[in-house]
Each structure stands twice: as C-alpha cells, then as structure tokens.
Amino acid sequence: MAQPVPEHADSNDAHGHDAHDAHGHHEQSFWSKYVFSVDHKMIAMQYMFTGMAMGIIGGFFSYVFRMQMAFPGHSIPFFGVVTPNEYNMLITNHGTIMIFWLAMPVLVAAFGNFLIPLMLGCDDMVFPRINRLSYQIFLLSAIVLIGSWFVEGGGFGGAWTSYPPLSAKSQYNLTSWGSTLWVIAVGLEFVAFLLGGINFVTTAMNSRAPGMRMFDIPIVVWMIVLASMLFMGSVGPLLAGAVMLAFDQQLGTGFFDPVRGGDPILWQHLFWFFGHPEVYVVLLPAVGIVAEIITVFSRKKLFAYKTVLYTAFGTGVLSFFVWAHHQFIAGIDPRMANVFTATTVLISIPIAEMMFVYVATLYGGSITLTTPMLWALAFIAEFIIGGVTGIFLGASGSDIYFHDTYFVLAHFHYTFVPIAVIAVYAGFTFWFPKMFGKMMNETLGKIHFWGTVLPFNGIFIPLFVTGMAGDHRRIHNYKNFPELTTPMHEMWREVATISLLVLIAFQFVFFANLIWSLRKGKAAGNNPWQANTLEWVAPSPPPHGNFAELPNCYRGPYEYSVPNREKDYWPQNEPA
Amino acid sequence: MATKPIATTRSATTIPTGRLAIWWVLASEVVIFGGLLASYIMHRLGHPEFGDYASHTNTYIGAVNTFVLLTSSYFAVRAHNEAEHGRGKAAAKWLYLTCLGAVMFLCIKSFEWHHEISEGFTITKNAFWSFYYLAAGLHACHVIGGGIIMLIIAEDAKKNKELQRVELIGIYWHFVDVVWIFLFPLLYIAK
Amino acid sequence: MIEHYIEQASTYAADIDGLVLLVGLLVGFWFVLIEVIFFGLIVSFRKREGVKAQYISGEEKHEKRWIAVPHELVLLCDVVIIIAAVRVWVDVKQTLPPAQATVRVIAQQWAWSFVHPGPDNQLDTADDIKTVDELHVKIGTTYHFKLEARDVLHSFSVPVFRLKQDAIPGRVITGWFKATRLGIHDIQCTEICGIGHALMPARIYIQSEADYVAWETAHAPPPTATASLGN
To answer: In terms of domains, do C50 and C126 share one?
Structure first.
C-alpha cells in the first residue's frame, strides 16, 4: 500500500472537522457554484434538470406522433403536417431520449449523485472532479443529439434500435449526418455513465459511515450500485458496436453490410446484449426508490431485506442471458429461441418475488397516503401489468405474432413509464424537502398524481387492444391496410391520444407545484417524514460538505415501529 | 478544489479507493474490448478467407511492438516500486521511460500502417482490415490517453505528490499490455 | 383472445392463439390475485389512531413462507408456459413439413414481389408468375416461402396466419404455412425499413383450387418456343 491514510480520517473518528474547515466560508462565484461545481448535490441537480428538460422534448415528440396516429394527415398544432421521415425521426428520438436522456440521468445519475453520499454519511463522492467530467460529457452528448435534428437530411429515423443496413447506409436512411451524430451522442452518453459509475461503486464500497455494515446500506443505494455494475458489464460490446456503425456510416467499412461480408445480425446481438440488462439498469433504481418510500409511509421494516438484494442480484445476472428474446424471428438459429424463451420466462421469478416482498411490506403497516406514497404504490400496481404482459412476448410461440405490434409497445410502456415517470415523481416528491428545504403542496401533488396515472392507463390499454388487433409498429399512417382502418382501430387510437393530451395537461400542475413550493412551501426542517436514513440527518438543503459532523451508523435503515420504543422510527445515526 | 472530501480517504473495504476505481475502469474496458474481439472472432469463424487477408500483416513488426510494450510495462513496475518507497523523483523517471515505450510503439505502428495503407490495405479493403484498424486503433487511442495521464502523474510524482497514483497508472498500463497480448495473436499470428 | 380481432386462417394460428390464451389465464390469475391483495392491504392497514405498525423482519421461516410458496407456484406456471411455448415454436419455426408448393417472397424499399411457381409448380422456370404486392395461394396446400430482402431488413407478416419472419439482405430464409380459410387479407412489413415502411402493404389471396388455377392461367407469362420444347 502506497500512502498511509491520514489520521483524521480514521474510521473510528466521528468528527468531520476537515469537511467543515476545508469548505469553510469561501464564497463561490456563480460559475463555480452552479456550472463547474464538483459538489455531488449540484451535479445531481444538473443531471436532474437536464434529464427533465430532455424528457419534455421526448414528451413533445410523443404528442406529435400520437396526434398523427389519431388524426392522420392533419396539421398538428405546434408542429404542422407530419411527413413519413419526420414521423420516423420523432419515434426514433422519443425512444432514444426517454431511455438515455431521461431515465438514465434522472434515476441513476441524479438520484445516485444526490443520495449516495448523503445516505452513506459522506461529505461528497470519492472523485468529485470525475463526477463533474461525467456530467460535462453527458451534457455534450445531449447537445450532439439535439444537433443531429438540425443537420442536412434531418434527424435519424431508424428507430432507437438502429438496425443496419438501414442505419448504416445513408442511401437507405437518407439522414447521413443525422445518423452519425445520433450514434456519437449515444456513444458519448455511454462514456458519461461509465465515468459516473466509478463514483457510485467506489463511494458505496469504501466510504460508508463508520459502523455501516453491508446490510445497513439503504436499498436504493444498493440498487444504484448494482445498476452501475450491470451497465458497466453490458455496455462495452455496444460501445464497440457503435464505433463500428459509425465507421460503416462514414468510412464505408462493412461490419454490418452483407454485401461486404458483414452481418446485420451482429449489430442486433451487440445491441440487445446491452439492451436487455439496460432495462434493469433503470428498473433497479426505481425499485430502490419505492423501497425507501413504502417503508417510511407504512412505518414498517422492509420485508426480507436480504431477499430484495438476492432477487436484485438474481435479476441482474439472469439479465445477461435473455437478450435474444428481442430477436426470436430475426433470423437467428430457431433452436436458440428455445433457450432464450426459457431464460426469459424464468427471469419473471426474481422480479415477481421482489414485488411480493414489497406487497408483504405493507402488511401490518400504518399507511399514510402522502403524494410520494401514492406514486410509490402506483409504481407497484402498474409495473406488475408490465411484468405480466412481458410473458406473452417471452414465450417464443406467441411472440411470433406479437413481435413488432403495439402489444410490445404497450408492454414496455407499462414497465418504462412506471420506471421513468412514476418512480421519478415518487423520488422527486419524497426528497424535494431535502433537496430544496421546502415542503411541496400536497393538494397539487395529489391532483397531479391522479391526472397522470389514470390517463396513463388510458393511453396504453387501448394499445394492447390495437396491438392484438394487428397494428404493427413504426407506421406513420395505417391508411394502406384495410384490416387496420376499421372504426374500432381508429377509436382506440383516438382514445390513446386523447388520454395523452390529458396526461400532458396535468403535468402543468406539477410545474405549478414546483414553482409554488419553491417560493411558498413550508420550511421542511431536517426530517419532515420522520425517516431513518442518514440523508435526513443533514440540514435541508444540505450545505457543502453535507453534515456538520459526519455521522456514525448504529443499525439498519428500516427500524420502524420497533416494539417498546416510544418513537416509531429509529434513525441510523442515533446511538443505541 | 485543492482538498479532497473525507469520502475519498475512507476505506471500508480496506482497499484504497483509487485502486477500486482503476479496477472498475479496467472491468469496463475489458467488456468493450471483449465485445469487439468477440465480434471479430465470430466473424472470423464464419469467414475462413480472413486467414488469407490476415497473411498480409507484418508479424515481425507486431512482435517488435509486443516486446516494446512488455518492456514499458516492466518500467512501470519499476516506477511503482520507487513510489512505494516514497522516491518520487525516481518513480517519475521510470514513468517517463514507460512513456518513451509508448511513443516507440506508436511510431512503429505509424510506420507499419503507412506501409500497409500505401499497399492498398485500407480500412475499407475488407472486413478483416476493418477489424484490424478498428481494434488496433482503439488500442492505440488507449495507449495515447494512458500516456498523457501517465505524464501528468509523473509531474506530480516528481514533487512526491499523489504517489499512490503511480501504482494505478501502472495497473492501467498492464491492462493496455494485456489487450495487445490478445490482439497480437488474433491479428498477426492466426493466418 | 386474438381471434376476437383477427380471424385464424392457418393451421398453426389456433395453436398460437391457444398459447396466448394459456398465458393470459395463468398471468391473469396472478395479476388479479396480487392486485387484490395489494389494494386490500392498503385499505386494511391505513393509519389508525392509536394503532402502531407491526415489526416484521421477513427473515423468520414462517414469514418467508408467504413469499416462498407463491414463488414456487410462479415457477411452476413458468415451466408450463415454457413447455407450451416451445411446442408451438418448434412446430412453426423448426419443423418444415414437405412442401406442396413454394413461393419466393422478396422485400425491398418499398414493395413486395412474389414469385409463384406457375402451372409446373417449380420455381425458377419460365412459367413463374411474378407479382407485386399480391400473393396468391391455394387453400389447404402446404407452402414453403423463400424470403429475401434486397436492401435493408424487412419482415414478412401475415396476421391471419399469425406468421412473422424477418427478411435479411444476403440471406434466403425458409418458412412454411398452410392456409385454412378463403379470403383476402393484409400482408405487413414489420421491420422498420425507411421512410416508406408504411407504404409497402401487400395482400394475400387465399383461393380455392379452382380459383387459383383460373388466376394462374390468366396471369401465366406467354409461352416461348424454348419453354414449350423444354416441357
């Protein structure tokens, strides 16, 4: 070992003098405080708001193409008439944005950055400057993506899955620069998250508060760390593949070109080898957020903490062995399909078990339906729909029919929307008091909740129906398909679109709540929810350095309603 | 920010955080190169003519470069040894030698590629050459990046600062070496 | 469930629909059960004045059983589903019953071409009938299709058959179907293939033997001297 650990950071020492003194009272300029910050909380906010801004763009795209679906050929307000290439660009970038520029930054990087040091009782992440660099690369990737829509030829329209040869040759996709900028943006985003992962994993492994054992770590921290590991273990081949695709696009190589001895299916394998673990990369943090919330608002210990961890591990490991269920009819050896159908259907087991454990946590609880709790409960109720509908697709025999229909789309929105919208709102409304020092308005919160969750179902249940009834994907206009232009089809498409309009309208309630709460919200105090985990020990919002004195940890995170104690909660930092 | 957070100095696993971090970085790099090389191997298995295409690579130059890299890794080990004993100036000297090895590697590679390109073996010649330039090029980028970081660490080490980083860049350098140890047989020997 | 919306017109359509129904019943059962328990618990355990929550770790054996037992039942359901799925899959995608006729299906940006074998029932002979966006087949006949793509990935989908197969440039992929009902139905391209992806519908004409022969005769290419000599 090279350098001895400085004395004052000895793990038995609870006094964080260094944190306080070193960051004393120096005034930071606007630039160093808000733009070039190395503080994990500021970086978290940067990720959060960039992600949310991108989410608004992605949501706008869905508004446009859903209007086209319901009222084909009409001029869409705020957009105009949607041409086929615009339609393809919209659906492609909607998917790409929502996964890579909304779900990942908000769930992994924003919540990860904000929560991990606080919940572990640290003053910051282990490598603050690498942290800042990761955001800068992420921001660059967002700029490159947005730029890709304004170059000659327009934005890439080959679907977020970007299968070659369509994506590899501009003579086919007609978006020479758009396609390459899209690939570069995605590649940069991957690099940003690989860098970010360095901090999440090393901070969680090494920088825990003195006394915090492995099983005292809050579930959400575990989940974000596991998600980072999953990401890191799966993205490499696709990063290589992205370079290969960019080379095919611009240099004329033939990695994926059958004419030149390449193989389009290679791309699919590289893509989905990452793509499947990726959905768990975003699922795990969402599930972690839900765990933190349901324990607080049912005043109950998490049921079988270790089981939650094992199911998360199990899901993560299994997720590397299911990828070709996206490729059942893609032209892979049909015998392979049987292997993947088995693994895919079986992966439902750890996830089902996780859901059972969450439901069991409610048993015997004392439940208050605050806004965060409503969101967390809605996650469970809605995600289960996503989970069970996945079985139809994992079963190879039925996937022959369902592949590339709206049934698939409805399935993955029943997983992704709970992940990227419901769980995000859950986490945001739950930790808002800590982040901003104010309480959010409960009434506006509940209105926003119902106005989001109910219409959400109104969008996607009709799409299960139209999917079963034959609607295939990525079609800008069904007019050429007599069997898909029945009144029934058209009615359900309209119901879905109108539900989306309602959902969008209610998001304004959220913004109103945000602004109102920031200005007029009640002062939150350190621990308005009477929760146990260490972030609630710090002031709201936490200052630079987080804690006046770095806390020690004396117990697990979910010691609620412990018998024979007066208070129904027992913070982790309170000595026995 | 001149001061480090307390978080950086904690060590619940007793492994220094820097070392945890570098292993994490290496793990992600292994998956990147692993994916690329697995794609190459799959292609190769499906295309026996790759053997013919590969016959035009210069095994002799590849072997020289292998020796250069291995030697530079040895220098990195010497640097680490000096750093362990707190001898920053000596550690920096060995790091500079390692960088010299990197420069030699890159010069030899430039010469090699210049020659191959002028013979018409470009990246678009066929799938083998596409993989050849991509894999070796990606590796070369890691050599360049690693070399630059190594120089920065050597500057600090000269002043006896952040000596623990000498070990870390050494570990990274060994990884760059190991990737080459895979590339060499796949691109040069298997003909 | 699907048959409610789209008729079954192939020998395996009912099998696929049957699998969908099986999955629907099994997952439907679990779905209803969990949601009922979930909402029931929320209602039963609302915060009540003076009533404290219980302290349950979930690590005790008798507590764990509440998770372990459903977990094992789910596993059982999964095994049933896997077996059922594999059976359907093997039948549709792995077995190739002997062909009574073969058609070539060619996808390109943005149209379908079909090559029918003509009266000699051989592909790649002079009497082949080439059509664009129209596939004619005889009811009750086992067909092999040879699927090709000229440029990018496409996918050959016939919803009434419940059939789908991606088309890959540079490869010929063989599949099979046997129509069981007369009618004219949609053929879709189900892999995004560029801006004309929605502009390449085709139709399949499932015809009786007599009608098919009539169509064939009407559309056969004019015989050439060499062709009649060859026959």
So the answer is: no
- Closest Cα to residue A161, out of A474, A475, A478, A476? A474
CATH superfamily membership of A40-536: Cytochrome c oxidase-like, subunit I domain (1.20.210.10)
The answer to whether residue C228 sits within a structural domain is no
How much is the mean pLDDT over chain A? 94
Position C113 in a domain: yes
Q: Averaged over A4-20, what is the pLDDT?
A: 38
Contact C84 A395 (CB under 8 A): yes
Instruction: Answer whether C touches A (≥3 Cβ pairs < 8 Å).
Output: yes
Q: How far away is chain A from the Cα of C183, in angstroms, using its nearest Cα?
A: 12
Closest Cα to residue A209, out of A18, A12, A39?
A: A12
From the CA of C56, how many Å to the nearest CA of chain A?
6
Q: Which chains touch A (3 or more CB pairs under 8 A)?
A: B, C
- Give the pLDDT confidence score for residue A26 in this predicted structure: 60
pLDDT for A20: 40
Name the 3-class secondary structure at C100: coil
- Chains in contact with C, where contact means 3 or more Cβ–Cβ distances below 8 Å, are A
Q: How many CA atoms lie within 13 A of C71 on its CB side?
A: 16
Does CATH number 2.60.40.10 belong to domain B18-189?
no
ipTM of the complex: 0.95
CA of B185: how far to CAs of B30, B59, B69, B179, B189, in Å? 17, 9, 15, 11, 4
Q: Which residues contact A316 (CB under 8 A, 6 or more apart)?
A: A226, A229, A230, A277, A280, A284
Q: Is B36 on the interface with A (CB under 8 A)?
A: yes
- What is the nearest CA distance from C91 to chain A, expressed in angstroms? 9
Residue B2 pLDDT more than 60?
A: no
Q: What is the pLDDT at residue C223?
A: 67
Q: Nearest by CB to C89, from A158, A306, A397: name it.
A: A397
Determine the pLDDT at residue A260: 85
Q: Do A300 and C53 touch (CB under 8 A)?
A: yes
DSSP line for chain B = --SPPHHHH--TTSS-HHHHHHHHHHHHHHHHHHHHHHHHHHHHHH-TTHHHHHTTS-HHHHHHHHHHHHHHHHHHHHHHHHHHTT-HHHHHHHHHHHHHHHHHHHHHHHHHHHHHHHTT--TTS-HHHHHHHHHHHHHHHHHHHHHHHHHHHHHHHHTT-STHHHHHHHHHHHHHHHHHHHHIIIIII--
Query: At residue A16, does pLDDT exceed 80?
Result: no
- CB atoms B31 and A233 under 8 Å: yes
Last-in-domain residue among C42, C75, C94: C94
Q: Where are the domains of chain A?
A: 40-536
Cis peptide before C110 (omega within 30 of 0): yes
Please indicate whether, in this complex, the C-beta atoms of A342 and C171 are within 8 angstroms of each other. Answer: no
Q: Does residue C113 sit in the same domain as residue C207? A: yes
Per-residue confidence (pLDDT) for residue A259, from 0 to 100: 87
Please name the member of B5, B27, B32 whose beta carbon is closest to the beta carbon of A128.
B5
Distances, alpha carbon A14 to alpha carbons A571, C84, C115, in Å: 16, 60, 80
Q: Could you report the per-residue pLDDT of A359-388, keeping only the tens digit for each?
A: 999 999 999 999 999 999 999 999 999 999
Q: Does A392 touch chain C (CB under 8 A)?
A: yes
Closest chain A residue to C2, measured at CA: A468
The tokens for A150 are 């304004």
What pTM was computed for the model?
0.94
Tell whether A266 is within 8 A of chain B (Cβ): yes
Report A:100-119 residues touching B (Cβ under 8 A): 117
Contact A485/C at CB under 8 A: no
How confident is residue B1, by pLDDT bands cut at 50, 70 and 90?
very low
Q: Chain B residues with CB inside 8 Å of A273's CB?
A: 35
Q: Of all residues in chain A, what percent carry a pLDDT higher than 90?
A: 93
